[in-house]
Amino acid sequence: MGATTTESVHSRTLRLTKPHMVLEEDVLRSVPEGYVVVEPTLASICHADLRYFGGTRKPEVLAKKLPMALLHEGIGKVVGGKKTKLSRSQKVVIVPYLAGFLLEALDPAQCCPACRGEIADNYCSHSKFLGSGTDGIAQSRLVIPEACAIPIPDSIPDDIAVLTELCSVSYRALRPVKDRLATARVAVFGDGPVGYLTAAMLHHAFRVEPERLTVFGAIREKLGQFTFAKTKMVQEYDFQSGDKADIVVECTGGAFSQSAINQGIDLLAAGGHLIAMGVSEDLVPINTRDVLEKGLTIYGSSRSSIPDFEAVLRVMEEKDCQETLRRLIPDTYTVVAKAEDFASAMESALAHRAWKKTYLDFHW
């Protein structure tokens, strides 16, 4: 059964119609009971957005998902919705993973194995994800289940709160090995934003000290930002005979996934865990012989759910965590008031690929 519609709102929706082409559409959106209307105020661009915008996803994927508004990392303010607990103008973090039981107003037990708790709850077979098959945050009126709009504590600045989604994905990936993190030696592969925030969550959320946390990267200047961990250049490290790790987190993706995963396998001690987080469009060969001989566990993790956001926001209230995250915040934001502004911001992000995040300041 579905939720009863209580009102409708017009949303200026900035839709990617084909690679490099963004058009504004006026979309009339119904507001079911139990939903809120959020006006996005600040968002950041993810590499997943750039793969859609730049047309590097497979043609059949683009044909299936476009036209679509991009973005899934962002915050906003509540501007509508009836019989909700959230007050008007409340600042909220937007949870882009919309579980099926929330969308259909079902008891979780009626939805799927993920919603029933039989498997991880971020793998609902009836879920939707903003900016990936359904319109994302690049619109003036976002209608989502109230549970997916999480109030931002007053102690967390907006520019920090925007990073909640990306941090929550890292947090979620680490949860299955939480009990091991108290003593484990941990290695992170990747010196980009995903690697940085994963290492930040290991240090601030799971209390992994620098002595037990090593980040491997390829660019010395980027590794210099990881002040809370040991750092090593992958080009210079002997993975066969160097110090071993108990847990490896792969955060490279793309063409670097193969080398990072296989170097991680070399690095792991017997019985170790390898967590794959990087996204690759192509198949990645791995050294299965050593996986078998060492008895390694490999698992992938994608996306996150409401409890992960709540946990990350609690960590973000700590000032030292905020100082760590601030290194990723850009010096200036890009104002977006119309489709041309958004397309220009995406083109710039695609061309420059800066280490810091790109922030979009919406002026609707």
UniProtKB/TrEMBL annotation:
Q: Which residues form the Alcohol dehydrogenase-like C-terminal domain?
A: 233-317
In Pfam terms, one family for this protein is ADH_N
What keywords does the record list, in alphabetical order?
Answer: Metal-binding, Oxidoreductase, Zinc
Q: Kindly list the cofactors needed.
A: Zn(2+)
Q: Does the keyword Cell cycle apply?
A: no
| Residue ranges annotated for the Alcohol dehydrogenase-like N-terminal domain, each copy included | 33-154
Is this entry keyworded Metal-binding?
Answer: yes
Q: What is this protein called?
A: Alcohol dehydrogenase catalytic domain-containing protein
Q: Which organism is it from?
A: Brevibacillus brevis
